[in-house]
Amino acid sequence: MPFSAFSRGAALLCAAFFCLQATAQIDQTYARDAKQTVDQEYTQRINKYTTLPELNSPLTDYLPASSTVPTPMKVLGDVSGAPDILPYAEDVYSYFRLLESATPRVKVFTIGHTEEGREMIAVAVADESLLKDYKENDARLAKLADPRTINMNDATAEGLVKQSVPVYYITGTIHSPETGAPTALMELAYRLAVDDSPYIKYIRTHMITLITPVVEVDGRDRMVDVYKWHKAHPNENYPRLVYWGHYVAHDNNRDAMTLTLNLSRNVLDTYINWHAQVLHDLHESVPFLYDNTVGDEPYNAWLDPILTNEWQMIGWNNVQEMTKFGMPGVFTHGNFDTWSPGYLMFLAAMHNGISRLYETFGNGGADTVERILTPDEYSRTWYRQNPPYPKVKWSQRDNNNYEETALLVSLNYFAQNGQTFLNNFYLKSKRSILKPNDAGPAAYVLSANEESPDRQRMLLDILRAQHVEISRTTEAATATVPVKPKRENKEDDASAKPPQPKTEQRTFPAGSYVIRMDQPYSRIADALLDRQYWAPNDPQKTPYDDTGWSLPALFSVEAVRVTDAAILKAPMQTVKEDGDSGSSSGSGSVYLIANHADPGLITLRYLLKNATVSVTDAATTVSGQQYPAGSLIIQNAGANDMKSALQKTGLVAAAVSTAPSVAAHTETTPRIAMMHSWLSTQTEGWWRQALDKLRVPFDYISTQTVSNEDDLRSKYDVILFAPVGNARTPQIIEGLPMWGNELPWKKTDLTPNLGRIDSTDDMRPGLGYSGIDHLRHFVEQGGLLITSQDTAQFAIDTGLAPGVSVVTHGNLKVVGTLLATVAVDQKSPILNGYSKPLTVYSEDGLSFNVSNTVGGTRGPRLGGDEERTTGRGGPDDPDTPQGRPYMAADPRPHPKPWEAMPLNEDQTRNNPNVIPAELRPQVVLRFADKDSLLVSGLLDHGELLAQHATVVAAHLGKGSVLLFANNPIYRGETIGSYPLVFNAILNFDRLGRNAGTTTKSEAGQ
Ligand SMILES: [Zn+2]
Q: How far, in Å, is the centroid of ligand 1 from the Cα of 213?
């Protein structure tokens, strides 16, 4: 029955007199077109699959009929949201292409492809008059997007706004188990193209709706496979979606800063190229509709306040209208903080648009099931006065009703206020350009003197992908910059010294990169290049994601924040692509490459697999150029191979006729395996992606492989066990419980998209105790096992890292924070190329203690047994027993927090737990002192973490186990710490305490 939902809600909500008025108003607002017939069969099915009348709205409880335009039933065989039906991306696309061929109100565009080659599309829906002229409209929007093109002239802008319609971009199912959006968007497009109700017609004629129905296409097809398997095995447990995209799962919605995934770049390019005003991303994990855009504090500090107000306008209107429909459980605000710019929707927030996100309620497939909510989900709060029901029978159709209704309400509101939002779009763009004069800074400068052009180029590439303009100085440029704080000795009497000047003049050489803030996309550059501070006493106690992300720190690249506007007057030119991509100077058949902890060095090594590569063990200077220890001497490489390798890596080499006389050793190309668990492949996916992007070859194996392979050493030199993601050691060993049925992950006729990355007949078994034995043998026979975070904990728990333990957390609070470290073992080849303190990413503040005994844990000595007993003298005096000469005790050792407690003779006598000297763990990096520990993000009680070990090499037999307390390869952000892993790989056989004894210049022979 039409309008039933509204009638029920209205009756509940108001007194009779008021109700009549409200009814009249709403009926008129949402009235259908009386002349348009309704598709009876389709409508009947909508109502059949909707589990309660109030879970639908007058906007979506019917479907208008069309004699020419096919409904989703044509492709699906049933209506959108029907039970048991999940279409593959290809089927979704075929429907949109049917629409395109049936109506001039729909156009389909290919916007790129996924890592596995699947197509991504965007569909434009609007009245034919708008779509016919969409390019002219876009040309006007482009001017509003870059007000420099109209000389920042408000009157011109006003004219353009009047002639233009806005573009609202909707993206679906980036999170593959959140399955409802594609069918909701198919039906939405049909409604927008066909429905003649005034409400929908207004949208169609006043704006362009752009739709990417499937963002994570690789993951969608795998999810449909899993669902089909489930339907074919109705009474069994079904496999979890262990792989979504080719590399990462849920984190595909954390890639909006570094843009490492094709889907992020494709969506951003579409958003930018269409000059859209909104990017609205659809998710399904909260009942029944959470418009999480408005979120909670802290708000991202680089946003234009105009935007945060727009969130409130659109969000609260959405809640209000759906509340009037009587739909329960619609709310905004909530507990999502809008601090991190890593979410897909934030691409718009950081590029002068409006970011939006819905969480509707999804069942992870198309089953209709009873859902039981938790108190925090159904309780009434100030921002959720009409909460979801504690228990509800929920269908995919219900989900589609909510998604479509909410979107239509938003689109209509946006269309009604299109001129305002277009004007805001212009204003935000203009204010981004005015940044140097307003909030500042004027620019960021990346000096031509940067030690590692490789890492600097990688940072600039990200800015370029973000559509940020990059300029390069043509002459030396000088600007006033803040004086870098010097580390002061606290004991010094501050009053005795003259006050330090706050600023100084700094000259950047010609060729330095300038990221000007007087450009439309200054905001994203500022947010990525600046530092973040999250106050320990912030009211928000549960940050939604990382609290720090400062890319210069994570790339170990200097980006100087310059507030002095003089920098903008320096002679410079905008640069499109970087010209300096890999070359060699000089002549000769020996090539020298300085090591500045460049990620490209490992790429080069594997590209030149057949060349003789030596690595210097000491610093040297050749023709005035300095080569730190760890630099490469390359011989027996063909000139063409060398040229090609340099072009691919962007590295610079010097050709000389003879190798310099310096201590060096030969570097091989170690055989690498990456071992994953079947519990989760999310966090290790970032490691896999990094190796692939850097062309480092590896075998991809699982813990099950290792469980069955007793001679790993004959196959591999290095096994990477990247973080699983908050896995406990027993889970890694046991896997999933073995009761119930097998959970296959493999390619079959029923599941053609599974098993392509790795496969198994049964995902449940874990590493097993045999797997631990095999890993132990692998290391004892000279292999290197690399672990991080939870897998480092695993190595400790299973006895693979004698003498290493985890520091107890206490009140320490770290949430995705960037922390400073200090090199401890300067001679370790793991630190090759590093010349300055490195910033690392810490997920939760893990750190290590080391000990000279097995099972020993040793925190910092804070007095305790050091304190004197009651007796004569003062607190610093010794007690003196009477009637005998005083005998002083030996002074007790006071190791630093990152050091092992030295053992005295008494402690080592007949003690089987003492680790032989050559097998004792070595600390490579430690966390910095308390006052200099925090680089970016949230840190509370840093004293519990300060000075403790960050990276430790433990030893077993002839091999080593490397433990990272940080995650060195994470979300394409931690470029500065990548080479720690790469150095370890390339020096896998030189990490022992007795390794590293140099043979004099093998290279020079
Ligand atoms: Zn989601």
A: 14
Please state, in angstroms and rounded to a whole number, the distance separating the CA atoms of residues 430 and 424: 10
Ligand 1 centroid distance, CA of 327 (Å): 22
Q: What is the pLDDT of residue 544?
A: 97
Q: What pLDDT, in 10s, does the model give residues 81-115?
A: 999 999 999 999 999 999 999 999 999 999 999 99
In this structure, the number of other CB atoms found within 10 A of the CB of residue 56 comes to 27
Radius of gyration of the chain (CA): 31
Q: What is the pLDDT of residues 612-668, one digit of tens each?
A: 999 999 999 999 999 999 999 999 999 999 999 999 999 999 999 999 999 999 999
User: Token digits for 310?
Assistant: 């727009």
CB 619 within 8 A of CB 600: no
284 CA → ligand 1 middle, Å: 6
Residues of the chain with pLDDT below 70 are 1-27, 486-498, 578-580, 856-866, 995-1005
**pTM assigned to the model:** 0.94
Distance 544 CA to ligand 1 centre (A): 13
* DSSP label at residue 38: B
What is each CA distance from 346 to 264, 280, 342, 435, 857, in whole angstroms?
A: 11, 9, 7, 19, 44
Q: How far apart are CA 448 and CA 470, in angstroms?
A: 13
Q: Residues 993, 918: contact at Cβ < 8 Å?
A: yes
- DSSP, res 714: G
Q: Which residues line ion ligand 1, judged by CB < 5 Å?
A: 175, 178, 283
Is 614 in a helix, a strand, or coil? strand
Cβ density class 530-569: b for 16+ within 10 Å, e for less: bebebeeebebeebbbbbbbbbbbbbbbbbbbbbbbebbe
Helix (H) or strand (E) holding 424: helix 418-433
762/754 Cα distance (integer angstroms) = 13
